[in-house]
Structure formats: C-alpha cells, structure tokens
C-alpha cells in the first residue's frame, strides 16, 4: 500500500458548544480517488478545509508530504481583487504550469475569461473556481460539490477530465452517478467520526445499511444485558461480597458505555398536503414555440401530460428549460401553439433558487409565515418544532436566521415550506441541489408516492432514472424531443451523449400508444364515430364541470345537512355520479387524442 501524501489523524473540532468532529481521520495516497459522504451538517466541508489547511483543528495531527501541491474548490469562491476571470484562474498556476490550460478550461466551462468578477453569477463564479483548481493539475484535488451549477454536458465533460488526471482526489457531491463513476474509496463521516470503506461509492449504501443494522443489534444486546444486571442488583442473592461489588462495577461500566453511544439522527419525514384529484388530462400541448429576439428557444413542440406522469426536462444551461416549463404549466404564453390545462389543477412550484426566502426571517417564521407557532399542512396543523424535526432541524434552530443556514439546510427548508400547501401538480426546479443523500432518498420516495403529476427539471442523472416516466430533452437549436423512460433510457434511445446540444439520430419510441382494446381504424384516419366523439366530448366535459360546481355550491349551503338530510344525501350522490361521469369522459377524450396524435404522426 502506497504511503499517504496527506493524512489527518484524530481530528477534533468544536463550534460553539457543539462538537462537530470527534476523532476524524483521512489518508490520501498518490492517485487516490476518494469520496467524502455524510449528512448535511456532519462536517464534510469542514474536514475538507482542515485537509486544505484553511482551518486549524482543536486537536489532532495534519501531515502533508513536502513538495505536495494541493488545490481546493470551495462552495463559495471569492473572486474579489481580480480584473477578470482569466486573471483569477491564472493566479492559481505555479511556475512551470501550462499557461494555456487556464483558457482551455474556461472555454470548456462556457466562460471566455473576460468576465468581470463583480458582475458574474454565483454559478459562473463556481465554474471559474473549478477551472482554477484544475488548471495546475495538482498532486491532490479537494473538490466540494464540483457539479453544483453545472449542466449535464458540463458534468459529463468534468467526469472525463477528472478521469484523465493523475491527481489524487477527495470529492464531496450529492450526485450519485458522479461519485459512482469516479471513486474507489469511501470515507463516511458519522456522528463526528470517520469510517472507511475500501470500495467506491457504488458499494457504500449497502455497506452503510448493514453497519447501522449491526449497530442497532449490538445496542439491543447491550440494553438486554443492562436489564439482566439491574434485575440481579434488585433481586440477586448476596453471596460473596467481592464478586458482587465487581458485578456492580461492571453494571456501571455498561451504563456508561450505553450513555456514550450516539444514536443515528432521525430520517427526514416528508409529509404532503393532499389536494383534490385532478382530471385525467393534465395538459394538452400542441405546437408551442417561443423566441427571444432572433433566438428560437422552443420550436414547435407537442405532448400530452396525463395524471400520474413524471416528466423530466433536461438540457444545457441556456437551452430554454425554464421557458418550456413555464409554458407547460400556463405561466408563460407561447408565441404560437396552444396549451390546454386540465380541470381542478392545484400547481405547486418549489423554487430551488431560494428566491422566495427572506434572509432575515428566522426558521420558525419561514415555516409559520410569521404567525404563531403552528404550521398548517393542508387542513391539519402541527407545532413548528415537531414539523422542524421532520426535516432534521433541531429545536434550537427555531430562531436561527435563514442567512445563517447552510445550502443543504436551505434546500430542506424550501421543501418544508412548499410541501405544506395542497397540490396535485408538483413542479420541481433543480430539487436535488445541496440535499444530502438521505434527504434525496426521501424526496425520491415522496415523488414515487405522490398521487398527482410531477414535472422536474434536473441535472441529476440518478434522480431522473429513479423518478421519471419520460424525459423531454434538448436536441439543439430549440428542438425538444420526448423519450419514454428515465435518463438512461433516453441515452439508449438517442444513441449518443444525451444533451450535448448536437442533434442525434432520434430513436425515440412514441410515448403515447393507443389504449388497450381501442379498435384501430385505417392508417392515418379516424373513424366517423371517433371524430364525432372527439368533437363533442369537450362540450360534455364542460357541462359536467359546470354541474359539479353547481352541486358543490348547493351542498355548501349553511344548515342543509341538519335541516334537510335527505336532500343533502341526494345531492351528494348526484355529485359523486357526476364526478365519475366527468372522469370517464375525460379519459375517453384523452384516449382518442392519443390515438389521433399517433395516426397523424404516423
């Protein structure tokens, strides 16, 4: 085994009164590819800063082999004091480094180098910092969330670039696929200490689950042993005094051992406020397009979104993902084409850019909207402290200002705020940013169990594979194509890198197939019966919706249930029948639309 060129041993660090690291170790040898994992707030970024020499630990040892070069990528880089981005990147080069590599990396990361550091976005600053870290090709790269603010083509480019380097690497990332593709060892920070798995991230989660299960079993055995010894103390026969005193001392040791054990932090408990069920048809999109000046970001695009669909949208930064998304949910008018939204939609958009968070709010104010100490989740109410615990916040954080929260904590806060509201169409814009892997697991399960429809914009390939039923991908020059399945299915159907912006030979299967049992008329032509139904069903659906509105209003009259219970029951039965008929007509119309789209497309 090669000797380490960087190691940390028995690192202790406390912030305020709370110990963060309590004996953490890290060893990096030449060419090592190691990922650092753990929950938000476990100390991953702090340990990386100790390794980089930016923070001095309260206790422990740090050793760097003389002559070893280290480059560190921070989450929030500081470009102040530089005339332009290129000069910032070149300042990271050492004598003898290739000066042309700085410009090459900036171009690959979609920067010219001429940008003013005072006027660039946070994402551009992160890309500049990434170029600065990579440019010298150091002996050790310490990268904290390198994929943040990168689109899919840039993430795939970065993977290939890192593979080609001889540098040792320590990576922190929430991107599972990125870690699986690059790492050979995994260091887990768990309750202040580190545990090493001599395998890559792809083996980590099963290993972690086995470790925690064995730990739980050992704790259970210890608890049972303490119970037996306590029973002996109360009911045991006093025989030999020396032996009995030893057993009492052993019981004290067992209790001390149990008290020193730290329990695993609880899981995120994502609760959803339920809304009424939407209609079968969520959105019928026909030939929509959008241009800004001379640039056409969406060329004519059509799709049908049905209740229960999980639609992923992927594409390079600037391709028009947000524009397309806003047109799909009726927030932005297309230049041409139509979007027909279904009935009874409650749309919830989770703004992962944190724009709706006032940095001066406290955590409690953000969850209660500044009114009292109760959180309304749909029609139920919960104390703010209990609701905070569901999302892994501590009671002490109730008065913490939002600007003092970490990026991951702000991400969890946005989920907690958004999911209070009832919805049946959930729109997630980059939901995985800054979330730890455990929270991502719970978010994935929530999306899978969500009773409505989901539209998600994401650069996280693993997340898209787990949740999406279809992917709308940019094919370059404003062209958008829908593919059946998740991200990997889309790549297989395209037969090329997914969202490079270059047209690929389209192997996409038609997403909407005729429903089982539907008689298929002659190719390219609907039967007269189907045409008649297609033309008249919308009128029937509209009339049924109006009748549902009238019946709901009648049932809501004060005192009807008490004064005229028979009439109330009669109206309730009629409403139930009307809703069933409405749903049946919508489903029939949607099936016919799918059939027509297939015939016209074929």
Question: Would you mind describing this structure in some detail?
Answer:
Helix 7 packs antiparallel against helix 8 and helix 16 runs antiparallel to helix 18. The termini are far apart. About 5% of the residues have low confidence. Helices cover 40% and strands 21% of the residues. It folds into 4 domains: 203 residues, P-loop containing nucleotide triphosphate hydrolases (Rossmann fold, 3-Layer(aba) Sandwich), CATH 3.40.50.300; 54 residues; 214 residues, P-loop containing nucleotide triphosphate hydrolases (Rossmann fold), CATH 3.40.50.300; 74 residues, Helix Hairpins (Orthogonal Bundle), CATH 1.10.287.380. It is globular. The chain is of the alpha/beta class.
The percent range for strand residues is 15-25%
Helix content: 25-40%
CATH architecture group name of the largest domain: 3-Layer(aba) Sandwich
- Tell me about the biggest sheet? 6 strands, mixed
The span between the termini is 62 Å
- When the domains are counted, the total is 4
Unreliable stretches covering 5 or more consecutive residues: 237-243, 500-523
* Strand numbers in spatial order across the main sheet: 5-6-7-3-8-9
Quick structural overview:
This protein has 602 residues and is α/β, with parallel strands linked by helices.
How is this fold's topology laid out?
Layout: E1 4-15, E2 18-29, E3 33-37, H1 44-52, E4 59-64, E5 70-73, H2 85-90, H3 100-108, H4 122-134, E6 140-144, H5 152-164, E7 168-172, H6 176-182, E8 185-190, E9 193-197, H7 204-235, H8 241-260, E10 281-292, E11 295-306, E12 310-314, H9 321-328, E13 336-341, E14 347-351, H10 363-368, E15 374-377, E16 380-383, H11 384-390, H12 407-418, E17 425-429, H13 437-449, E18 453-457, H14 461-467, E19 470-474, E20 480-484, H15 487-494, H16 528-555, H17 560-563, H18 565-601
Parallel strand pairs: 3-7, 3-8, 5-6, 6-7, 12-18, 12-19, 14-17, 17-18
Antiparallel strand pairs: 1-2, 1-4, 8-9, 10-11, 10-13, 15-16, 19-20
Helix pairs in contact: 7-8, 16-18
């Amino acid at each position: 085994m090669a000797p380490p060129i960087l190691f940390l041993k028995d690192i202790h660090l406390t912030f305020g009164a709370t110990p963060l690291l309590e004996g953490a170790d890290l060893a990096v040898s030449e060419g090592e590819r190691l990922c650092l994992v753990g929950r938000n707030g476990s100390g991953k970024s702090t340990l990386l800063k100790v390794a980089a020499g930016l923070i001095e630990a309260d206790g422990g040892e740090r050793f760097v082999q003389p002559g070893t070069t280290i480059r560190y990528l921070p989450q929030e880089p500081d470009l102040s004091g530089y005339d332009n981005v290129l000069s910032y990147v070149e300042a990271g080069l050492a004598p003898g480094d290739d000066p042309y590599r700085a410009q090459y990396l900036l171009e690959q990361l979609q920067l010219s180098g001429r940008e003013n550091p005072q006027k660039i976005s946070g994402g551009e600053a992160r890309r500049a910092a990434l170029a600065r870290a990579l440019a010298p090709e150091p002996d050790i790269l310490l990268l904290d969330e390198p994929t943040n603010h990168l689109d899919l083509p840039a993430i795939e480019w970065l993977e290939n670039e890192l593979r080609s380097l001889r540098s040792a690497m320590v990576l922190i990332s929430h991107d599972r696929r990125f870690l699986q593709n690059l790492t050979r060892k995994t260091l887990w920070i768990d309750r202040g200490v580190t545990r090493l798995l001599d395998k890559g991230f792809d083996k980590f989660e099963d290993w972690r689950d086995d470790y925690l299960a064995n730990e739980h079993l050992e704790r259970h055995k210890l608890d049972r042993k303490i119970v037996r010894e306590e029973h002996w103390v109360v009911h045991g026969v006093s025989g030999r005094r020396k032996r009995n005193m030893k057993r009492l001392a052993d019981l004290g040791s067992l209790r001390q051992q149990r008290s020193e054990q730290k329990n695993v932090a609880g899981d995120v408990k994502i609760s959803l406020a339920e809304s009424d069920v939407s209609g079968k048809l969520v959105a019928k999109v026909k030939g929509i397009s959008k241009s800004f000046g001379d640039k056409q970001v969406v060329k004519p695009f059509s799709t049908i979104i049905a209740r229960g669909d999980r639609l992923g949208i992927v594409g390079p930064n600037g391709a028009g993902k947000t524009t397309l998304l806003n047109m799909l949910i009726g927030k932005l008018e297309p230049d041409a084409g139509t979007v027909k939204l279904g009935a009874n939609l409650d749309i919830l958009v989770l703004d992962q850019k944190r724009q709706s968070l006032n940095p001066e709010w406290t955590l409690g104010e953000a969850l209660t909207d500044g009114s009292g100490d109760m959180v309304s989740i749909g029609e139920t109410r919960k104390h703010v402290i209990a609701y905070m615990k569901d999302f892994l916040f501590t009671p002490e954080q109730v008065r913490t200002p939002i600007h003092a929260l970490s990026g991951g904590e702000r991400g969890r806060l946005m989920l907690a705020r958004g999911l209070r509201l009832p919805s049946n169409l959930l729109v997630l814009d980059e939901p995985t940013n800054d979330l730890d892997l455990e929270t991502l697991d719970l978010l994935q399960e929530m999306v899978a169990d969500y009773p409505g429809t989901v539209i998600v914009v994401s650069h996280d390939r693993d997340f898209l594979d787990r949740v999406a039923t279809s992917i709308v991908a940019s094919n370059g020059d404003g062209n958008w194509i829908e593919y059946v399945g998740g991200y990997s299915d889309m790549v297989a159907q395209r037969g090329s890198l997914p969202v490079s912006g270059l047209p690929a030979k389209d192997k996409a299967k038609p997403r909407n197939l005729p429903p089982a049992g539907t008689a298929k008329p002659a190719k390219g032509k609907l039967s007269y019966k189907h045409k008649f139904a297609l033309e008249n069903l919308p009128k029937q659906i509209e009339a049924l919706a109006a009748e549902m509105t009238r019946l709901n209003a009648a049932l809501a009259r004060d005192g009807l249930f008490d004064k005229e219970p028979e009439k109330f029951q009669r109206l309730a039965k009629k409403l139930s029948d009307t809703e069933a008929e409405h749903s049946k007509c919508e489903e029939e119309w949607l099936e016919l639309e799918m059939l027509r789209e297939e015939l016209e497309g074929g």
